[in-house]
Amino acid sequence: MTTTATADDLCTIEQEPSRFNDEFGEMSARAKVKVKGEMSEFVQKFIQAAPFVVMASSDPEGNCDASPKGGKPGFVKVIDNTRLLMPDVAGNRLFQSYQNMDSNPHVGLLFMIPGVNDTVRVNGTVTIVSKEELERQKVELELYWTDDNSKHLQGVIINVEEAYGHCPRAYNFAKLWDTDQIAENQANRPIPLRP
């Protein structure tokens, strides 16, 4: 059986027991209490140490986009325990996320630190801010690698609705940060080079 959901439904984690809990079992006690409406000290420190985040957005019809964002650790700024500032560096100029956020401000963020199996998840709404606002806030370009296109275009303030640490099981299943696997993939690339 399939059900139709609105974009608002898709952007909210269901914390009450659902039909999936009826079928597969209750949430653990830890899972029931980990989702918070603000960023804990752990979440804030994790974000400040993270050089990489994937931002998911969708338009009002539920068409989704997931966009990787990177920089030096701390490129996403913790303003306070309910707000983040993420500058946007010029890229392919498809602006899929921004087109989505123009009509549906809900986003989901997944922060990662290489070699660390935990992740942090943040869900909330965004306000798009101009390049001039980034300059007023003295936000500098914080990248390990730059080219002629490396400059801030604009940014977003994320108003946090949910924030929590996520367990390492998926990373462990995938051996994502396994140094032997990384070395093997670098020596014997498992896929051809991107055209």
Defining traits:
195 residues; alpha+beta; Pnp Oxidase, Chain A; seven-stranded antiparallel beta sheet; 8 helices; globular; disordered N terminus
Give structural notes.
The structure is a single chain. With about 200 residues, the chain is α+β, with helices and mostly antiparallel strands. The protein has a single domain (about 35-185), classed as Pnp Oxidase, Chain A, CATH 2.30.110. It is built from 8 helices and 7 strands, in the order H-H-H-H-E-E-E-E-H-E-E-H-E-H-H. It has helices at about 5-10, 20-25, 30-35, 40-50, 95-105, 130-135, 170-175, 180-185, and strands at about 50-60, 65-70, 75-80, 85-90, 105-110, 120-130, 150-165. It has a 7-stranded antiparallel beta sheet. Strand 5 and strand 6 (about 120-130) form a beta hairpin. The longest helix is centred in the first third of the chain and has 9 residues, at about 40-50. It is globular. The termini are far apart. Mean pLDDT is about 90; it is low at about 1-15.
